[in-house]
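Tokens for chain A. Residues wanted.
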């Protein structure tokens, strides 16, 4: 289980547009390909469907079941993609705080 607190999860959910069950601009196929390519995990696996089959619910389950390092790696890559899709997003405080969270999870400490 990844060490994400409530506020961190809420911030990530907003950045990734998860309120309606979607995640970024992913289709089911591209979401599977992205998660598998980043983590080696199958996001369509039954263990990620506890709360439902939407992409958002599967991502929430991933956060609750996988290690800090794996969640941090995925979150970091998703933040990179979100920033690529919307470059002004990178300037937001939420984006910058979430990047620090992803680095913390993978074990990279920010300095300075």
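Reply:
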């Amino acid at each position: 289980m990844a060490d994400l607190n409530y506020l961190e999860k809420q911030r990530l959910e907003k950045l990734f547009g998860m309120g309606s069950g979607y995640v970024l601009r992913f289709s089911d196929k591209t979401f599977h390909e992205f998660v598998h390519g980043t983590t080696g995990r199958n996001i369509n696996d039954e263990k990620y469907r506890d709360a439902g089959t939407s992409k958002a619910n599967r991502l929430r389950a991933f956060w609750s079941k996988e290690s800090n390092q794996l969640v941090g790696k995925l979150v970091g890559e998703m933040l990179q993609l979100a920033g690529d899709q919307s470059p002004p997003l990178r300037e937001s405080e939420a984006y910058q705080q979430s990047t620090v969270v992803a680095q913390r999870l993978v074990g990279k400490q920010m300095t300075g």
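The mean pLDDT is 94. The first helix runs from residue 6 to 15.
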